[in-house]
Amino acid sequence: MMEDEHHHHEWNGIGRNYFPQHASSHHRGSDDDDSDDGRMRPRAYSDEIVGTDLRQQQYIHHVATTPSASSPASQLHHRHGRGTNASGNKAAVNGNSHHVEPSRRYSGQGRTFNPMHFRRRKRKTGVSKCTLFGMTIFVLLLWYVALIILGEGYVNTQIQQTTYPALENYGRLMDAREGLQKDVQRKLTTIEQDRKVSSWTRQTKTRPLTSTDASWEIPTLKVARMDEAPRRVLPSVTADDGVPSLQEDLCGASAREAWADDAGESFPSKFVLSSKSRVLITGILNPVGMHLALALKSVCGVEVIAGVDPMFPNTVLNRMELLDRIKLLVTNVPKLIQPIVLPLIGLDPRKNLQKGPPKEQDILKVTGELNLLQHKPTHIIHLASYGEHLYRDDRSEALRNMQSPYGSAYHVPDMYRLRSSLLSMEQLLQSLGGVEPQSRPQLVYASFGQHGAHSSHVNMKTADEVMADVYFATHGVISTAVRLPNNVYGPLGFHGTPVFDMVERAVASWGHTDDASAARLAANLTTHFPHEQNTVYVRDVVEGLIAAMQHRPQRPAVLDFSASETRSLSSVANVILGTTEVVDGTATQNELAKNTHKLLHWSPTTSLREGLSRTVAWHLDRAFPFDKPIQVQTGAHPGKVNLTGSGDVYRKQLGIPTCAADDILCHTGNSFLPCSSECNSRKLCLPSVFDEVRDLLRLSVTTECDLILYTQSLGYDVHDLKLKATYKDDGSICNFAFVPRDSHLVRAAIEKVPDNRLSEFDVNLTPEDRLHPELVTQRKLDGLNGKILYKGWILVWVKDATTELPNHDMFMMKLNPGSFFSPDVKHALFVDEKFPVSPNTDDVMFLISQTHRPKLKERRVFRKEEDGQKHKYRLAAEPERRAITLVAPLKQYNHQDPTKNTAEEKHKLTVYEATKYMMVEVGEDFLSKEKPELKRQREFYERIPSFTNRVDLRSTNEPWYRFEMKHWIRSRWVVHDLKLEESRQLRCEWYQENVQWGNELDQLSFAHVMAKREIGRRIAHNEPDDHIKPVHIQHPELMTLTDAHEWHAIESEENRQAHVHAEEAFEILPRHLVETDDQRDEKALAEQMRLHHEGDKTSSKETPLFVRIMSERVMMLARLAWGEKHGKAVKKPHK
Asked: Where is this region: Disordered (predicted)?
């Protein structure tokens, strides 16, 4: 027989529960026994595996038995050739002899015999019969002596009859033996539970269960709460945490007030939050984690912050929303350690390491898990899974199934969040327990408040507190538990939380003015939340956490951040709608909360009305980020709020101060835009160099223009313009050039205007003015702006533009010109000052014509092959198209010789390659070093697919939409449609993204905006996902026969009804189409361009909308067709 592998298990430390899965199964001899197939079945050890089965086990001696042929065991052995004995161990069969040997185990310091692990050994042949006979006699003598000692009974071996006294003693002996075996079994089970498991066993254990029973549920655990069972007071320890801190060094008002109680003894300088601190936040993307990270940077000056977050639930929509939060952190905390670690703490707690052996300091030695101390933090704040709602997504009801980690059609399972909570807490404690006490960071972890009914989540948070006590007793790890209330509300909330869902419903139903509608809305808001909640504003919780992070207790401490009263959610809904004033809640008596106030001088300071108002304002800014303020309507009640278009208008109506641009803790959103931007909805917006010329352009200079061609030369002292324009008096096309007011070009231009002609331009000089040359120059600058023509451009000068401009000023006219031009202007064409060719009138008219495509009927085209034969193709009819933006694709340059560009779309570009080509576009070297702002943006974009495209613990029924950046453009010229709202929304998103990162590559921001919009459109329009899409084979000839791939659909009701997509409209080809080579033929596409210009020019309101990225090849063919129609000389357009 081959020797079986001995199962070996490492010690697992305190807090790990492990039940071996290779325990014995028992043969009971019944007809329906499930072990009669002769195989050993796994079974977990428990107190039930005692009694008659264990009576047959021989723990001390080797036993050789020869069962009769008629016995069940013998029949089983003879039938299968090998069998399982009573204790579940496989026995070698040699004739009728069976040899079973239990293994012995040494653990700890002493010698411990473990009967739970058996291994099969090679049977020793040639055993002496005398030895077997002697062992049998020895056992019989032991039993005989035991019976005599027990007393009065005896056994009559002749008649095989046992007297009653002897039978009684025999029963007593069996009971005693069974009790002893139970005690041994309990001790062994306890040892096995404390045993550390190998990394492979841990990985297997942490995988979620797959159940096919729809009614399967985990029963709610019932454990005693800390307030019901008094907490054992642990002995304090004296730790050398350094000298006490100074009061002025502490961060936060609560910490500074609490410092005076003991002159800073409980606030050591080692744990003061400052620029030297390094903070690790688990659950950094939840509301508390986000506000804490922003507060640490803006209030405490903490520079280095590391974040860990599981990003549950793993749905595409939820991941895209969380990416906006990561971008908010990256752009406001420049030294944020990236990437945000995504280890699925507790469920998949390992970090994907690079190739090669991992470093010892990166992983825990026993389990192989991520060592959370690798970032060398001074503070750890554990917020992962602090609330039950973090694993629930109410927007995914239709996608729930039994394989989904965030829910099913019947219930929301507890297993995932419970295991994540417990194992992540242990992972933290193990990381801390493995270092020296003087090197341990401060640990603060979130627990759950005492308000509300018992639940599995509350019990698990209680287990976290118990685990912290255990690690203090065994490793001396000091920690602070912060019990958060069951309703922490505020900006950056999550779906599934009461206040967030209530405000979302209110914003979606905003505009009801009658009392009956408002009453129905208030009733619907609280349908799913009828009970009372302990409500605390998130900023108040963050203030308490900052104080707790700097306070060092002598033993594990428990703090309570609950409010002094609870409120019904119906009253909260009324406050949101503004129909009633705030009413008093139900007072609660919480001694722990009172002690917390004494210890940290913390208590909630934000009123319910103020907190809810700020929350509603954030939701309005989130729902309508670029909407202009809407006229407020008032109802019957004086204080009633019915309709508003922006968060600042809502704040102003309620008398709440609006947020400043640099107060990220107030608005908790993207960077503010200039006041003159068409996308601005803030009251305290940013000033701009264009503020003084906005009214001049909009109300005077551009009132008679249909099309506008414009450029800018700003940020330096301009002496001349490189580009020339063609000026026409008919007013169809107006040319404008924006230049600095104090530049040499403007000074020279106004000097050429003689004084006797100034009155023609409404510039009147008084005799006193003529005596002062500086005053005359000032009058000319004020009166001649927008009235001087230079090289075909109408000069518009702006103040303070000779030095380098901020990013929001440098790109506002290029990306966001809508608010500067008259409402009569239809299109605007921006041309970069470094464009190699000056555009003429024909160029402008041609590009504008390409923003609209009439319907094309089904047509047939021919292609001549190399063999001289013509092949006939049938192209499907194309719907009408309208482009909200027209741009050119990015060129791929040869980095060794940037003057030579490669063929368009030579291969699929990566983000890094595209960034390098964009740098060449703006005049930088291909191999030059990136600026820090650009590097952060590029690295953030490169990590997005690893977040959104991962399918870990994702529903198998959910459509798989991959995030992919592929809309690479050149923005040396851009055509804007100024009449469509969809065009304004795209311009605002593009401009906001570029301002948020603050670099000069607006093309990179455009690619991200388009990739994000594409996922949103595909989900909203229910398009085929990426599992189905590759099956649709697109013929390679379509790229040469049509330009449909250059029209990128946007999310709109027109596109939803038309069901047109750039890649799907031409996938179905005629049956007679045969495979051909990749030879290009321009005649078919040229014929399409001719039909385009001869088609119907009318555009309906239901026309599908697109973003068009027009290639140079298609542009050349279209220009030929346009020139033939208008009788114009055709020249190759420059790109």
From this structure: 1-42, 66-113
